[in-house]
Design brief:
Layout: E1 4-7, E2 29-33, E3 39-40, E4 59-63, E5 67-76, E6 95-102, E7 107-113, E8 127-137, E9 141-150
Parallel strand pairs: 1-9, 7-9
Antiparallel strand pairs: 2-3, 2-4, 5-6, 5-8, 6-7, 8-9
Length: 164
């Protein structure tokens, strides 16, 4: 029986194809105020949150930049709360959280690094790119999310699995 792919939070990202070189269409989805051009992620669908907005314009869905630079990072050494799902009987594996600054949107977006990337692999200012990820799988669903992956340095193998 085929499992259904489901985003962990509907409307926060597009569903792109898995695999290297096939995730070009995968994007986080924010909203932009038509009056003040403020961008919001997670998306805002009710009203502009910018207190300096001159007129509270309409909010239009907008894809966010796929690349940014590390603003901060840390490791998670505990089981995160919902909506993240983990098997309480399985041994816990730490994960890396990365805060990536998107210059064009003037915002920082938090997310997990791709599996296998450790804090020792990262440095403030490193370039990161957005890729599709899997949060959890069960008998019926593959729960999808986003991950941040280090951009391969020039002259590296370009495999996208951590720093080269």
């Amino acid at each position: 029986m085929a499992r259904t792919r489901r985003p962990v939070v509907a409307g926060w990202f597009t569903e792109g194809a898995e695999g290297h070189g096939q995730d070009g269409g995968f994007r986080l989805l924010g909203t932009r105020c038509t009056a003040c051009a403020s961008v919001f992620f997670p998306r805002e669908d009710d009203a502009c949150r910018n207190p300096g907005c001159p007129g509270g314009g309409e909010l239009a869905e907008t894809p966010l930049s796929r690349r940014g630079r590390i603003w901060s990072f840390t490791d998670g050494r505990y089981r995160p709360p919902a909506p993240y799902v983990s098997d309480p009987d399985a041994p816990w594996e730490p994960y890396t959280l990365v805060a990536v600054e998107l210059a064009a949107e003037a915002m920082v977006v938090l997310g997990q690094a791709v599996p296998g990337v450790r804090t020792a692999d990262l440095a403030i200012g490193d370039e990161m790119e957005l890729v599709p990820g899997i949060l959890n799988e069960d008998d019926e669903h593959v729960w999808t999310t986003w991950h941040w992956r280090p951009v391969a340095a020039e002259g590296s193998t370009g495999d996208g699995e951590g720093k080269a």
